[in-house]
Amino acid sequence: MLTIQKLLDEIIQDFGGPISETVDTVKAGDASQPLLGVTTTFMATVPVIRKAVELGANLILTHEPTYFNHRDDREFLEKDDVFQAKSRLIEESGVVVARLHDYPHGMARAERDPSQDPFMVGLVEEMGWEQNSEPSYPYRCTIEPKSLSDLAQEFKEKLALANVRVAGDLDLVCSRVLLLLGASGINVHANALQHFSADVVVTGECPEWETFSYMADAKALGISRALIAIGHQPSEEPGMRRLTAWLRERFPEISVTHIPAEHTVRTL
Fold first, then answer.
1. Predicted local confidence at residue 105, as pLDDT
2. Where in the chain is the domain with CATH 3.40.1390.30?
3. pLDDT means per 10 residues in the chain (268 residues)?
């Protein structure tokens, strides 16, 4: 009998074995129960949990937190009505929620091979840029020259986005693109720009006083650089879909379904 915990242990071993400090732990539910089915998602939101129950799955593998902060700390939420209702939903459903963040992000580092990063490769595939990315550095892409405005529109169309956020000259001609996904931060963005000549950084999200401000100053100084923020979820959901395919291949006897997390941020 395959239990949920046994599956989690096998996944961790496939990703290089346990690491001492990680957020990739069981967040809710009894992992000793038999595994009935798996769902993957960018984030275990209430609609995702309800859909998993509808599908008959009792394990949700989520990339991002369940309780609204990176380490899923709950002390400050104990009296919060949203937290209480969500926790009650998970408990009554009988599902187990486990995080899969550090291990898949570490695949490239463990293999010393950036092409093993499922999140970078997933977005490259979603954009149809397989022939545009460098094999050793899939986050570095050389595309047909186009304006920043047109490039932003391409991301909107291919990822079905209602909007993106942009900093820089909309007429800037872009051909060298750095895909620095999620919320990697100004340190990663600035270091990558120092090492790789690029016209535009594409990220998930960042504080306005970090890379957005950096790009505003670059424009004011006449330095041709720009930023496109496509949203954290759209930047990493393709990676979770890629991991879903890996899970199906690795564990063919198990039902594995990907449930896209709704892009919850709207611009009115």
1. 84
2. 4-105, 108-233
3. 96 89 96 98 98 98 97 96 98 97 78 74 95 89 98 97 95 96 94 91 96 96 96 95 95 97 81
How do the residues of the chain divide into helix, strand and coil, expressed in percent and rounded to 5?
A: 40, 20, 40
Determine the topology of domain 4-105 in CATH: 3.40.1390
Q: What is the rounded CA–CA span in Å between residue 190 and residue 84?
A: 40
Superfamily in which the 108-233 domain is placed by CATH: NIF3 (NGG1p interacting factor 3)-like (3.40.1390.30)
pTM for the complete prediction?
A: 0.93
What is the C-alpha to C-alpha distance for residues 265 and 163, in angstroms, rounded to an integer?
A: 10
Secondary structure of 130-161 in HEC code, one letter for each residue: CCCEECCEEEEEEEEEEEHHHHHHHHHHHCCC
